[in-house]
Amino acid sequence: MNEIEIVKRAQAGDFGAFTELVNAHKDKLYAFVRKLTGDPEDTNDIVQDTFLKAIDKIDQFRGESSFGTWLTSIALNQARGMFAKRKQTDLRPLEDYLPAGATNGPNPLANASLFDWRDPLSVLEAAEINELVEEGLAGIPFKYREAFLLRYVEEMSVKEVAATIGQSEAATKSRILRARLALRDFLSRRFEGNYGEKMRRVH
Amino acid sequence: MARKCEEFIKGLADYIDGDIEPELCDEIEKHIGKCNNCRIMVDTMRQTVSLCREGKEERLPEALERKLTGMLKERWDKKFGHS
Ligand SMILES: [Zn+2]
After folding, report:
1. CATH number belonging to domain A94-202
2. Which of A36, A55, A173, A176 has its CA 20 to 30 A from that of A103?
């Protein structure tokens, strides 16, 4: 049975059908929210509220997007509300995470870290790398992080991301790129540092 | 960094996401072949995305799943009026 039919059954009041939808999407939704918030407790709250909201609003789902995308946008709104309340959004400008001139200077590469990742990626433990990625993501201001994750983790097109976050395509593209540059630079500096230290310990 | 690299970086995002015209693409490929800095930039921009995608596999924790099962059923019955 395809998903649209399952959704229809759920909309008609079939809890078993809704449970099927929950099971099909729970892990992916959890993984996305975990990256979006960077915090396990927040993730639990948001995932829980997302599925509760999905029950409340299930009649409003019209199938314009996939059910997964619909859940993602509910979760995103929850996260936005949470971050706005805590005023955690954009306390520091993204520029703080980037080398000088990286986003607006005449030469965006002037101060970028140009360290090759081949050695650190083969030497550092996967857990250590994952931790750095998590740390880097969590450090990027929310409005850039959401655009970046929707584009590359949820694999939406730029157009879909723009519609989801309510920005123009040009602004969306710029946020995605800036997030990517900031994260790249963060990782590059940390890989260089951690790899260098590891090599010193070995030799 | 050379002027060529500066121009290159402007088209970088489109290039690594694959939506750039083929001629420009050839030019960029050629440049990367000779310029180590730009090669590193392209590689690390790609790796940034793949590291975020792969990462460790996150799954809904069992404790949350158990909690959810009851909560969702309760909410559902409230909405649809079953007992
Ligand atoms: Zn170059």
Report:
1. 1.10.10.10
2. A36
Domain with CATH 1.10.10.10 in chain A: 94-202
The full DSSP string for A137-150 is HHHS-HHHHHHHHH
Instruction: Calculate Rg over the CA atoms of chain A.
Output: 20
User: Do B68 and A48 make contact, defined as CB atoms within 8 angstroms?
Assistant: yes
Alpha carbon of B81: minimum distance to chain A alpha carbons (Å): 9
Report the gap between the CA of A2 and the closest CA in chain B (Å).
22
Residue type, B9: I
How far, in Å, CA of B9 to CA of A114, rounded? 13
- pLDDT of B79 reads 93
ipTM of the complex: 0.86
The correct answer on CATH 3.30.420.40 for the domain covering A3-83 is: no
Contacts of B71 in chain A (CB under 8 A): 48, 52
